[in-house]
Design brief:
With about 270 residues, the protein is mostly helical. It has one domain. It is about 80% helix and about 0% strand. The N terminus is likely disordered.
């Protein structure tokens, strides 16, 4: 092989390693931030409990505290970072396929677009979801439907209803259509490819939309399981990843649907006299 070809291949392999390393670093930093916030909130909750005991306040009082601007900002940042940490790993196959196609284009002397542009489009979609989740978090907090500003639902009807809805959703044509797009990155590239930076951004937005359509109800389960419960956050992230990359991911998704339906029925049974 000529030296020029070896150098070109070496550079392309280096680009791939750079993309993989960048994605890994992004996910690690996201989870490190979530761990920090979780520990910080545990300390704040303990301090609040001590104050409540000393002042003879009810346990529900912290839920009724109004949000300040900083609360809105921190909650939005928390949701946004959490979505990056949970969703980027499952989107990595698509991102790597996009990067590989771009490397081949550059190898052929064609215009090259940074993989980061595609990633930005993908993250924009989940940032929008984070904004909606922040508002919902405020509504549930204001109505005292969460056990704390970042904790789980205190109402069996809400929790059981969300679990039941998420379980049924796992079997819907909508879920299957979106999951199919997420499970076939090469097919997505072949049918949705757009040239240029604007094209890469649009591709990222469209793939992010499919991903959101596939997973939005699973993410809403955090209001049931605990918005800052890292164990459940990790469990949902693993479920989303397995759905998208495992050979039997579709059936794993459906089996999880049965489990969520059963769980939801058990929770709802608590409100039956």
């Amino acid at each position: 092989m000529p030296l020029s070809h070896r150098l070109a291949n070496s550079r392309l392999n280096g680009d791939r390693a750079f993309v993989i390393g960048g994605l890994a670093l992004l996910v690690i930093l996201s989870w490190a931030y979530l761990l920090y916030i979780s520990n910080d909130m545990k300390g704040a909750a303990a301090m609040s409990a001590d104050l409540n005991d000393g002042m003879a306040m009810s346990a529900a009082t912290p839920n009724m505290m109004p949000w300040l601007l900083m609360d809105w900002v921190s909650m939005f940042v928390m949701w946004s970072v959490m979505m990056v940490g949970m969703m980027v790993p499952s989107a990595s196959p698509m991102i790597l396929v996009f990067s590989n196609v771009n490397r081949q284009k550059r190898k052929s002397g064609m215009p090259y677009v940074s993989t980061g542009v595609f990633l930005v489009g993908y993250i924009i979609i989940w940032t929008g979801f984070s904004a909606v989740a922040t508002v919902l978090n405020w509504v549930l907090h204001t109505d005292a439907l969460l056990s704390g500003m970042m904790a789980e639902s205190t109402v069996a009807l809400l929790g059981g209803g969300l679990l039941l809805a998420a379980g049924v959703f796992q079997w819907t044509p909508w879920k299957n259509a979106c999951l199919k797009q997420c499970r076939t990155p090469m097919g997505f590239v072949m049918t949705e490819w757009r040239d240029g930076n604007s094209g890469a951004l649009m591709m990222g937005l469209k793939h992010g939309t499919f991903c959101l359509g596939c997973c939005w109800l699973l993410m809403a389960l955090l209001f049931v399981l605990g918005v800052m419960n890292l164990v459940w956050i990790a469990a949902l992230a693993v479920l989303v990843l397995v759905e998208k990359v495992a050979p039997q991911g579709v059936w794993i998704s459906r089996v999880s649907g049965f489990g969520l339906i059963a769980w939801g029925c058990l929770v709802l049974a608590q409100i039956i006299p």
